[in-house]
From TrEMBL:
Domain PPM-type phosphatase: 187-403
SUPFAM superfamilies xrefs: GAF domain-like, PP2C-like
Keyword match Hydrolase: yes
Pfam hit, one: SpoIIE
Record protein name field: Serine/threonine-protein phosphatase
Matching InterPro entries: Bact_Sigma-Reg (IPR052016), GAF-like_dom_sf (IPR029016), PPM-type-like_dom_sf (IPR036457), PPM-type_phosphatase-like_dom (IPR001932)
Record key words, sorted: Hydrolase
Keyword Hydrolase carried by entry: yes
Signal peptide region: none
GO molecular function: phosphatase activity
Length: 407
């Protein structure tokens, strides 16, 4: 048996020699784990060139979710940012599908979404003379691997952060962004997407989630005040939530732990409103505790069918009694929207509050096409901001959870 063969059954041998696809992806895997982040572009460009491709570009989503910004680096094509709304790269990003655009010179520009666990990292674009199904398969897998490497290396460099930052960012916002999990998650049973405004000055709003086995845990918090004080309170609240959640206590126990943590750290005059949820992704049973938050909205068939009203308890930090737990059975395709009060309490030029009724009308008016929950969250947040006259004097955060069914 030769070095390139392995026994594959009686009288047969499996070919273990390296093909083009394995060589391309293997080079990234073999060389990427110790590669400095600033060298990633050059490595990707070399693999694209091996496919007879050129003008490789890596575009990262900015924090405001408005632009796709080119990552600088050796081997990567230079250029300006692409708007997420109104560009070919933006269409690939919004629809999470490759977009192929014929070029004047006869080539084809291919835009591929960079996805990591459902989170939208950005877009990779390359130009080839022609594109066939083998090219599409290899490019799709290359983009998936590049997305994983970007997420991994993001943890120990400022490079990607600087690219994504299009405006000056407050210290409080820096704290909040470092606290957040990925803004989106997607699995066969459940999807989730959130967005924070104002992206570069958010302070007291935050959210967190974890998928543990068949159970999705979700929390949203809104700390009183603004600036560093609010960011610090939100950090303590989320830290306490994670600690209690990882100790596998129930929703009432999570509330009690968060309440003690905020009270002991900040005293009786400080509080954090919160919403804590658990979703059984097999049955669709949703349980929640509302600690002073606006009631979530249940969206079915692209329309709000009800507010998820139930008993509320005091915000964490005020020493409320053991909370009552609310429950609802979701149907496949249902979405639950949680939001902070800044989304509805903004006042227009006439001094009128935006209000929940206008929020519901805007949700109902969304395009009636099946879109990924990430795209819906982004469109809804930006649409709400426009409807409020572009003003965001307080943090305005929304979080969508979609139960897709037990299959």
């Amino acid at each position: 048996m030769t070095h390139g063969e392995a026994r594959g059954g009686e009288g047969t041998a499996a070919d273990r020699s390296e093909g083009l696809g394995e060589r391309l992806l293997g080079t990234l895997l073999d060389g990427g784990h110790e590669l400095p982040p600033y060298r990633l572009g050059a490595l990707v460009a070399r693999q694209v060139a091996a496919l007879a491709g050129r003008d490789a570009t890596i575009l990262l989503q900015d924090y405001g979710q408005t632009w796709l910004v080119p990552l600088p680096g050796e081997g990567l094509a230079a250029g300006g940012p692409h708007p997420i709304d109104g560009s070919d790269a933006g269409r690939a990003f919004r629809d999470t599908q490759p977009v192929e655009v014929p070029q004047a010179d006869g080539g084809v520009r291919v835009h591929l979404p960079l996805l990591d666990g459902g989170d939208q990292v950005g877009v990779m674009a390359v130009t080839l003379d022609a594109v066939d199904d083998d090219d599409r398969r290899l490019l799709r897998r290359l983009a998936a691997l590049v997305a994983d490497m970007l997420v991994t290396k993001h943890a120990y460099t400022d490079l990607f952060f600087r690219v994504r930052r299009r405006e000056p960012m407050s210290v409080a916002a820096e704290i909040q962004w470092s606290l957040l999990p990925p803004l989106a998650m997607s699995t066969p049973r459940v999807g989730l997407a959130g967005i924070l405004e104002p992206a570069y000055d958010v302070a007291g709003d935050s959210f967190d989630y974890a998928l543990n086995g068949d159970e999705l845990h979700v929390a949203m918090v809104d700390a009183m005040g603004h600036g560093l004080d609010a960011a610090t309170m939100a950090t303590v609240a989320i830290g306490a939530y994670r600690h209690a959640r990882r100790s596998d206590v129930g929703l009432a126990g999570i509330y009690a732990f968060m309440d003690r943590a905020v009270a002991e750290q900040f005293g009786p005059d400080h509080f954090v409103t919160a919403q804590m949820m658990r979703l059984d992704t097999v049955t669709g049973r949703l349980q929640w505790v509302n600690a002073g938050h606006p009631a979530p909205l249940l969206i079915r068939g692209h329309r709000v069918v009800r507010r998820l009203l139930g008993p509320t308890t005091l915000p964490v930090g005020f020493g409320g009694h053991e909370p009552l737990i609310s429950e609802v059975a979701l149907a496949p395709g249902d979405r639950v929207m949680c939001f902070t009060d800044g989304l509805v309490e903004e006042r227009d030029a006439r001094g009128e509050e935006f209000g929940e009724e206008r929020l519901i009308a805007l949700v109902d008016g969304l395009e009636r096409t099946p879109r990924e929950i990430r795209s819906v969250a982004r469109s809804l947040s930006h649409g709400l901001k426009r409807a409020r006259g572009g003003s965001t004097s307080d943090d305005a955060t929304l979080l969508l959870v979609e139960w897709r069914g037990p299959g």
